[in-house]
Specification:
Elements: H1 10-23, E1 27-30, H2 51-62, E2 68-71, H3 100-109, H4 116-125, H5 130-144, H6 148-152, H7 160-172, H8 175-187, E3 191-192, H9 193-199, H10 206-218, E4 222-224, E5 230-233, H11 235-255, H12 260-263, H13 273-294, H14 298-313, H15 323-335, E6 347-349, E7 352-353, E8 367-369, E9 372-373, E10 380-385, E11 391-396, E12 400-405, E13 410-416, E14 422-427, E15 433-438, E16 442-447, E17 453-458, E18 463-468, E19 474-479, E20 484-488, E21 494-498, E22 505-510, E23 516-521, E24 526-530, E25 541-543, E26 550-555, E27 561-566, E28 570-575, E29 583-589, E30 595-600, E31 606-611, E32 616-620, E33 625-630, E34 637-642, E35 648-653, E36 657-662, E37 668-673, E38 679-684, E39 690-695, E40 699-704, E41 709-715, E42 721-726, E43 732-737, E44 742-746, E45 752-756, E46 766-771, E47 777-782, E48 787-791, E49 796-801, E50 808-813, E51 819-824, E52 828-833, E53 839-844, E54 849-855, E55 861-868, E56 871-878, E57 884-890, E58 895-900, E59 906-911, E60 915-920, E61 925-931, E62 937-942, E63 948-953, E64 958-962, E65 968-972, ...
Parallel strand pairs: 1-2, 6-8, 7-9
Antiparallel strand pairs: 3-5, 4-5, 10-11, 11-12, 12-13, 14-15, 15-16, 16-17, 18-19, 19-20, 20-21, 22-23, 23-24, 24-25, 26-27, 27-28, 28-29, 30-31, 31-32, 32-33, 34-35, 35-36, 36-37, 38-39, 39-40, 40-41, 42-43, 43-44, 44-45, 46-47, 47-48, 48-49, 50-51, 51-52, 52-53, 54-55, 55-56, 56-57, 58-59, 59-60, ...
Length: about 1000
């Protein structure tokens, strides 16, 4: 009923309205109230001129009446926020998407055709939003004949009216809300408020971020993740935000006006690895594609990107944000490298530089934050985590140990702990120290905080395992010597030796209560030693069942189950909790090659195993079943270790990476990538114009000596290569390695011609290789399987020389081809009749392992080089009588390689200190020393004419020397990732990180002025 007179003033009209609402029940509806709210000013503030509506809302909320006001809005009016509650007249209901059934009905009304999974995917993509579904349904009908599947194949695209709808919402957001929304698009998975705060380019308060997230939730742009306190974007919002973000960044780059480019990162090095890869694929690559369309000329795009770097360099450090790192990501994607780029005086935050070549670039005066580089890691043989997850550690093939803190976020310590492979790592229970064991025979205890060496003890054999007792008082060690040794963990005093094993002991494990010590190894048996007994040898119990070496042992946290890993490709679970008979509870199969390590999760529910097949298997122990396989490593996986929270798993591999896995999802969340460069052998071609090298990169490389370039790369080995040799006619190359093979290659084409193996033991690991002078035979030394000789034409093994019980590293044929010499880890060198393998003589007297043998040019003398602890010996023998003619010792370095001069009056040795020494046999002493390699010298070979000497070593370099004068002539080497990268005055890196860069070729001079 019309009212006769309406008051002119707003207050009068509101008073009249309220009287009517008190007098009768009425429903008022205000639809799309957000049209009355300010854009970009935070949530819920009324526009100028709409103040009357604010008064209406307050009166409806605070005045007694019997009516109802229903509002629909994508934003909540701020005036109502303090008035709402479960017991007040003002209630707020957040509307989510349609339920599945209602969404299905909407699609059916549009007569869309598709499978149940296709309809479900479509509904989830648009969050059940009825308007978005109606728009999309119309598009599917018009463009795809009503078929859902072809539409879904287009990917997650935002189009037409949906884009307009989202664009309107985005434009209404405040600056803070836009920033938070775009960061959620960058992070691409549910994240917490803490994670958001940690990545923001321009800092915001916690309150600002919380308010922004809440506002975005009320607009149905943000939704909760599965984990409490985590938030993410709806699928269609994510795609729109990504599209808009890239368009705005591209526009900024074109115009040179920087805002989003500084406040937001395109790719975050510290993000979970699968997220970082997604950022690279969906942010960096598409943005570069847009820029290439905007700048068709390659040079113009590069000029613009470098101009941006100059513009950023002119800003104060605090004002550069993510800008430099974003430009770097684009340049890296554009070129595939960052060679020669000037990055001086920039603030680089969150850049992913792993695997990126940066030769001749400069970072002088740069400040780095949260930036990840390739690390100076060789093949990783062992990994460990501390009990409180503060520290992670890894040991490498060439003796380096690295310790990270803050769950791997910061490199804490990195140093050359040993002169050979670090095969074992163990944190003490109190986490104040950690122990390392190495193939150099040393067991060392280190202070965890400072890296200070506390004590060193020695065994006469390779160390394979070290393990602290649960109380931390005793350290057990084992190796090639068929014994288990017990040490006082505080001072390194030898306490006891446990005997009874019939071969090398590869594995040790203490029971959680310390009452049992398990050992296993080459004899395929597991021994349980009762450590509370005065004489544990008298109370040992045996577990049998494996058909090959036992390589790893681990007790379950409850101590009732023992897990074992073996070269027989199985993992076994043993019941060991009672005093009754011991038996295999379960045999877990699935690995397709040797299994190296097993590890329990701290809660005892999962078991991880890894091996030569490059995989990690997770087993559900409660169900005795396979759970999942973790894939990603590209070479053998040697070590695994769970994090204390049960959620993460570390793995170390021959591919030079440490990976961190999310146990629940099976995804790789972090990669610490190394660069493996060590060369183990080098060989001259018969004409002296070429060199072949081989090592940890699994490649045989042929080099042109004159111009220092690689001519050919031979690929085929799947594990490290320890030996390489040319056939006497120069037509073929032979290489030997730990992938159980000796391979013969066509030297001119690089084609693989033949693969020779041990016919008796498929798992035999081979070391050096040598051709007979007539080219008919190949000899290779091995681990535990003697010297093996094959007839090359037929591939038939002719004989096996078993004069040594362990490793035979190097062999050498006599110049006339009638005898073959080899040196072993037992401290002797053997001489065999070449025709049938008859042992002619055994030269004994070395205190340590014989690592090299070399014949004099006339074949009358044999030189042998050895090492023991940190010292080396050089002996020269009469090859016929076995008389020792000369003996020298070098207390400062092990001797790994030997070469004679053409005259036979001089010997050159190379060893663990990276030095070459020229020994004059007439004077009985060395006459000159040359610094050669970083790390050990692994091989020495003289040229066919006897004038030149080639050396190679752990640093990946081949160095050419004048054999008589000792003059260094040239170096052959592939550039390391950071060769000649200038890091003078760099800030934000630890000393360990700087040392790692220098090890990969970076150079550092006097500090530059950063002003």
């Amino acid at each position: 009923q019309p009212l006769p007179d309406l008051p002119d003033a707003l207050e009068g009209r509101l008073h009249l309205l309220m009287e009517q609402l008190r007098a009768r029940r009425a429903l008022l509806v205000l639809d799309n109230l957000e049209m009355l709210l300010e854009e970009g000013e935070g949530m819920g503030h009324m526009r100028a001129g709409s103040e009357g509506y604010a008064q209406l809302l307050r009166q409806m909320a605070q005045t007694v009446h019997q009516s109802c006001l229903l509002l629909t809005s994508r934003e909540k009016p701020s005036d109502l926020v303090p008035l709402e509650g479960s017991r007040t007249p003002v209630r707020a209901l957040r509307l989510s998407g349609l339920e599945r059934e209602a969404s299905e009905q909407l699609l059916e009304e549009r007569e869309l055709v598709g499978t149940a999974s296709g309809r479900e995917q479509l509904i989830e993509r648009y969050g059940g939003n009825p308007l978005a579904l109606k728009i999309v349904a119309q598009t599917i009908v018009e463009l795809f004949g009503g078929e859902i599947a072809p539409f879904l194949e287009q990917g997650e695209v935002v189009f037409g009216s949906v884009r307009e709808l989202l664009g309107e919402q985005f434009d209404r957001l405040s600056v803070v809300e836009q920033r938070v929304l775009l960061w959620l698009a960058i992070l691409r998975e549910p994240v917490s408020i803490e994670e958001l705060l940690s990545v923001l380019g321009t800092p915001l308060s916690r309150a600002q971020v919380l308010e922004a997230v809440e506002a975005l939730r009320w607009r149905s742009l943000v939704e909760r993740g599965k984990q409490p306190g985590c938030f993410t974007l709806q699928s269609v919002v994510l795609e729109y935000a990504t599209e808009r973000f890239l368009a705005e960044i591209a526009s900024e780059i074109e115009q040179g006006t920087l805002s989003r480019l500084i406040d937001h990162g395109l790719e975050l090095a510290t993000a979970k690895e699968y997220v970082r890869q997604t950022q690279q694929r969906l942010l960096v690559a598409p943005l570069l594609a847009q820029l290439r369309n905007m700048y068709p000329q390659r040079a113009a795009l590069e000029q613009q990107l470098f101009a941006l770097l100059d513009q950023l360099r002119a800003r104060a450090n605090y004002a550069q944000g993510y800008g430099p790192a974003n430009v770097l990501a684009l340049l890296r994607e554009h070129w595939g490298h960052l060679r020669g780029v000037d990055l001086s005086q920039l603030v680089i935050r969150g850049a992913s530089l792993q695997g990126v070549e940066m030769q001749d670039a400069t970072l002088s005066g740069a400040t780095l934050r949260e930036t990840v580089f390739t690390e100076a890691l060789d093949a990783i043989w062992t990994v460990a985590t501390s009990l409180n997850e503060q520290y992670w550690a890894a040991g490498s093939r060439w003796g380096e140990v690295r310790v990270w803190r803050e769950s791997g976020k910061l490199l804490h310590l990195a140093w050359q702990a040993h002169t050979s492979t670090v095969a074992a790592l163990a944190f003490s229970p109190d986490e104040g120290t950690f122990a390392t064991g190495s193939w150099d025979g040393a067991i060392k205890l280190w202070d965890l905080e400072s890296g200070t060496l506390l004590w060193t003890s020695w065994q006469t054999d390779f160390i394979h395992c070290v393990a602290f007792s649960p109380d931390g008082r005793t350290l057990a060690s084992s190796g090639d010597g068929a014994t288990v040794r017990l040490w006082d963990a505080y001072n390194g005093t030898h306490l006891q030796t446990l005997t009874g094993n019939s071969g090398p002991v590869q594995a040790l494990a203490w029971s959680p209560d310390g009452s049992l010590l398990a050992s296993g190894g080459f004899d395929m048996q597991i021994r349980l030693w009762k450590m509370q007994e005065a004489q544990p040898e008298t109370s040992v119990r045996m577990l049998t069942g494996h058909t090959n070496w036992v390589f790893s042992l681990a007790f379950a946290p409850d101590g009732r189950t023992l897990a074992s890993a073996s070269f027989d490709r199985t993992v076994k679970l043993w019941d060991v909790g009672g005093e009754g008979s011991l038996s295999v509870r379960e045999t877990l199969t699935g690995h397709t090659d040797l299994v190296f390590t097993v590890a329990w999760s701290p809660d005892g529910r999962l078991l991880a195993s890894c091996g030569l097949d490059q995989t990690i298997w997770l087993w559900d122990v409660e169900r005795s079943s396979y759970r999942t396989t973790l894939l990603g490593h590209t070479a053998a996986v040697y070590g695994v270790a769970f994090t204390p929270d049960n959620r993460g798993l570390l793995s170390g591999s021959d591919d030079g990476t440490v990976r961190v896995w999310d146990v629940e999802s099976g995804q790789c969340v972090r990669i610490m990538q190394g660069y493996a460069a060590a060369l183990y052998d080098v060989a001259w071609s018969p004409d002296g114009t070429q060199l072949a090298s081989a090592g940890t990169d699994l490649l045989v490389t042929i080099w042109a000596v004159a111009d220092r370039t690689p001519l050919r790369v031979l690929r085929g080995h799947s594990w490290s290569i320890y030996g390489v040799a040319w056939s006497p006619d120069g037509k073929f190359l032979a290489s030997s390695g730990w992938d159980n093979a000796v391979r013969v290659w066509d030297a001119s084409t690089g084609e693989s011609r033949q693969t020779l193996r041990d016919p008796d033991h498929v798992e035999t690991l081979f070391f050096g290789v040598a051709w007979s002078p007539d080219g008919k035979f190949l000899a290779s030394g091995s681990y535990q399987r003697g010297v093996q000789v094959w007839e090359v034409t037929t591939g038939t093994r002719q004989w096996v020389g078993r004069g040594h019980p362990t490793r035979i590293r190097r062999m050498a044929w006599s110049p006339d081809g009638t005898r073959l010499a080899g040196g072993g880890d037992d401290g002797s060198a053997c001489l065999w009749q070449a025709s049938d393998g008859t042992l002619l003589h055994q030269f004994e007297g070395h205190r340590g392992r014989v690592a090299s043998v070399a014949w004099s040019p006339d074949g009358t003398r044999l030189a042998t080089g050895s090492w023991d602890r940190d010292s080396g010996e050089l002996f020269v023998w009469d090859a016929r009588s076995g008389e020792r003619l000369h003996a020298w010792s070098e207390p400062r370095a092990r001797m790994y390689a030997l070469a004679w001069s053409a005259s036979g009056t001089m010997l050159v040795s190379g060893g663990s200190d990276g030095l070459l020494r020229w020994w004059d046999l007439r004077l009985g002493e060395y006459v000159q020393v040359r610094k050669a390699h970083q790390g050990a010298v692994q091989s020495l070979k003289h040229s066919p004419d006897g004038l030149l000497l080639a050396s190679c070593g752990d640093d990946g370099a081949i160095m050419i020397w004048d054999l008589e004068s000792g003059e260094h002539l040239r170096t052959l080497r592939r550039d390391r990732p950071y060769e000649r990268l200038t890091i003078t005055g760099i800030r934000g890196l630890t000393e360990a990180q700087k040392a790692s860069l220098r090890a990969l070729g970076a150079i550092e001079g006097e500090a530059v002025n950063s002003s």
